[in-house]
Design brief:
The chain is mostly beta strands. It is 0% helix and 39% strand. It is built from no helices and four strands.
C-alpha cells in the first residue's frame, strides 16, 4: 500500500519514507510514525510524517 491517502496512516504504524535529500536516489528509511504533518486528505508524492526517530519524510510504503 502506498502512502498517498492520509486516512491510511496512523501514529504507531510502521512505514518506509523518503527524506528530502534522498528523493533523487530513492533511498528509503524505515520507522514508526509519531506525527502526521500533511493536512490534506491526499498528496501525490506521499503524506509527510515525522518518525519516532525525529526523521521527516514522505510515506512511500506502509509495512503490514
Amino acid at each position: 500500500m502506498d502512502g498517498k491517502n492520509r486516512a491510511d496512516i496512523k501514529p504507531g504504524l510502521r512505514v518506509k519514507i523518503v527524506q528530502k535529500q534522498d528523493q533523487r536516489s530513492g533511498r528509503l528509511t524505515e520507522g514508526t510514525v509519531r506525527d502526521i504533518l500533511t493536512n490534506s486528505a491526499t498528496h501525490p508524492h506521499g503524506i509527510k510524517v515525522r518518525l519516532d526517530s525525529g526523521v521527516v519524510g514522505r510515506v512511500k510504503e506502509i509495512i503490514k
